[in-house]
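BUG: 3D viewer hangs when loading the predicted structure for this chain

Environment: internal workstation, default settings.
Expected: structure renders.
Actual: progress bar stalls at 90%.

Input used:
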Amino acid sequence: MTMLQEIEKNLLNINGVSNCRVIGDDQTIDEIHIINQTPRSPKQIARDVESYIKTAYKINLNHKKISIVNLDIPVNSEDENDAFEFGKRISFENLSITQGHRQAVIQLELGFDGKLFKRQETAINIPDLRYNEVGKLTLGLAQEICEEQLIFALNSIRIDQIAGNDIVLALVTIISNGEARLNVGSAIIRDDIHSAIVKAVLDSINRIVSFVKIN
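Structure tokens produced before the viewer hung:
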């Protein structure tokens, strides 16, 4: 598999990328063409594509090289996969962090299907360790929601900057039906970096969650 083929395969894991074609060679990317059949805006999708390419391949991709075509979503489709964006998703409800001299107590609440899920963890009060613990806590609660139907593992949490915006990138491995796939999620840091971490992690898994029938 060439680098471009690998990129095409992995881009399909990004929320909003229904199909794609990457043009270039093994050193450069000249164009990326994407079909979007979801409610997500082209700007959001392009940002996630830029983030993934920069994180996974260390390539600074000009957003002007990304072309996105929006196709209407069939509302009354008989194919469940055509309407995956209408599936249930895990929502971010609340996050509180109490920081002491040495430790930080992290309390997180996520919502799913009208139910509230809560969990608390303690982390050493160092920024990188605290950020990582917020990511793990988010996936831990998501695992509780999904039970054994999906398995999540946190690869990394990164803070980066794209187009003048500070963002969080979350790389998460998802195991479904015995197959492992690497997903990337992103969120702009607005007021609180910890909340952005939760949102980025959920962004990385919710497209897959929406495919799965969870009791």
